[in-house]
């Protein structure tokens, strides 16, 4: 199960929106329905984008509401098969298209081009939306006729989701929250299917279902993100990089090489001639997609656990504003940076802090956290990436480079003068924090270099 939260503060809004993702187990008939719904959703989006471009070139004013009305007027004649699935499968894509163009125009002001692209047909992925008014949940009842084909030993163990024009689909677990369901997105990743519930819950429900803060005093934390150590804390704790991609790199490379040799339509001309993908190609593509999904799940699990511990244990967090896109241009570090997930880490820290009342301080992008001495405040003019030990020419401090950066980020929170000693965790606090990391399977180590002074 994965949880995603909105950025609304619970203290300001008594109701908040969350997303609850659960794996579902459809049968062959239900899988066929899902593939039809994926195709209808993709068709509506591509038709709307094509019509938007045509009207824009003709000088007409375009709106997603008019596009949806035009599509509804012709769908029974030109696309009668869309009536076989839920009506939301061809309505929600126009709303998504409007959001995409809104983002495009807002990004243009920032100098970023993000024009909406046509959706491609993929064998192992797809999604469609169902409105909350068509959603129903139920446990299998022994005397209920609608669950007549379900074995007795599975009844009362699984919760079922009702999909329009299809029926009841088995879920691997029950919905954990009590609240209003606004909608559900059915998606496919490889050979797995998921239902993501968008729900509104109260503050009391959130407190009941999520970890509570264990802060007995105001704790401050400076976080420096890196490649060698994924996260280095100002408390002197280094969280090792799990290197999820590296663990599966050989397997992904082998499957990708085998997939390239399978028979399939490689050119547009072959596709026009009706050349179909072979069965072996489809089977192997599912295997490759499953491995890639496994890597993504491991990375998501690591970030979720770490960010939850930080926002529960600390009351003030300091971070740096990294240019992740610029860092990804370095082909030597791009894979390692993407494996850590710098952008996702910051996003989760920010929205979880809003829920738990944690103050997050983001340093300026050009703040020299690594080049500034955390003891005397002297700034080095040049510091190579290969230099992992910071040596201050003014006061003689020798300290780990990333640890020095985390202390400088901590100073932005504490607002203390340069040269003062930073508060350290007590042995009891340190043992409790390390226990939480070990309990969640997070590998940590203590910074060995510490703070030293040359004589």
Low-confidence stretches: 1-13, 416-422, 450-455
Task: Describe the sheet with the most strands.
Answer: 8 strands, antiparallel
In round numbers, the mean pLDDT is 81
Please indicate the percent range of residues in DSSP E strands (runs of 2 or more).
15-25%
Q: What's the count of strands? A: 17
Number of domains: 2
How much helicity do the residues have? Answer: 25-40%
| Global Rg | 26 Å
Describe how the helices and strands are arranged:
Elements lengths: L1 E4 L9 E11 L2 H30 L6 H15 L13 H18 L15 E7 L4 E4 L19 E5 L3 E5 L8 E10 L2 E11 H7 L10 E6 L3 E5 L3 E4 L3 H17 L7 H5 L6 H35 L2 E5 L3 H4 L6 H7 L1 H15 L2 E5 L25 E3 L5 E4 H14 L12 H13 L4 E3 L4 E3 L2
Description:
The chain is an alpha+beta fold and 455 residues long. The protein folds into 2 domains: 208 residues, no CATH class; 184 residues, no CATH class. It is built from 12 helices and 17 strands. Strands 1, 2, 3, 4, 5, 6, 7 and 8 form an 8-stranded antiparallel β-sheet that branches. Helix 1 crosses helix 3, helix 2 runs antiparallel to helix 3 and helix 7 packs across helix 10. The longest helix has 35 residues. The protein starts with a strand and ends with a strand. The N terminus and C terminus are likely disordered.
Structure in a nutshell:
The chain has helices spanning 28-57, 64-78, 92-109, 203-209, 244-260, 268-272, 279-313, 324-327, 334-340, 342-356, 401-414, 427-439; strands at residues 2-5, 15-25, 125-131, 136-139, 159-163, 167-171, 180-189, 192-202, 220-225, 229-233, 237-240, 316-320, 359-363, 389-391, 397-400, 444-446, 451-453. It has 455 residues and is α+β, with helices and mostly antiparallel strands.
